[in-house]
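How a chain folds remains the central question behind the approach discussed here. For one protein, we set the task of working out the structure tokens from the amino acid sequence alone. The sequence in question and its structure tokens are set out directly beneath this paragraph.

_____
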Amino acid sequence: MPWSRTVKKRDLPEPKLTAEEGGKPALFLPEMALVLDIGIYVGLFTAAFLAATVLPMQSEALLVGLILSGHHPVWTLVSVAAVGNTLGAVVNWMLGRGIERFRHSRWFPASDRQLEKAERWYHRFGRWSLLLSWLPVGGDALTVIAGVLKEPLPNFLLLVFVGKTARYIVLAAATQGVL
């Protein structure tokens, strides 16, 4: 059950004792539920953040699983994933700002070919191409190119956030059978 307000110790129910537990308090107290809720959101944020950076991660699978569990508000899950994924893309934007130092590193998120293609796309469509930064192929390269071409960070954040949020909203809607 998600907490919608600040929970104080006095608001928490007393642990129930059952005969099956031999009169011992239940192992799953409300305080533990709050910690687990926070941990789930931190885990989703981390997965979404890393999925937008150089590490191969899948935030979509985690988001779908959490939506299907039905234990958390969908809008909260989508918001956490979108913010994490957007901030992860900032790492690529910063790499783009210093690309010449990192371009040929093995861990770099885009190949020379991907960068050239993304740069052509970016020149053709301008900053609006960042709305497609959610794409699994080429999306990371677009965010790197935005850094290379010195796209102002506020514009970058807005466009990337809109694109990535739209993707998570569509995914959530499809998961719930709305689409």
Summary: The two ends are 26 Å apart (CA to CA).
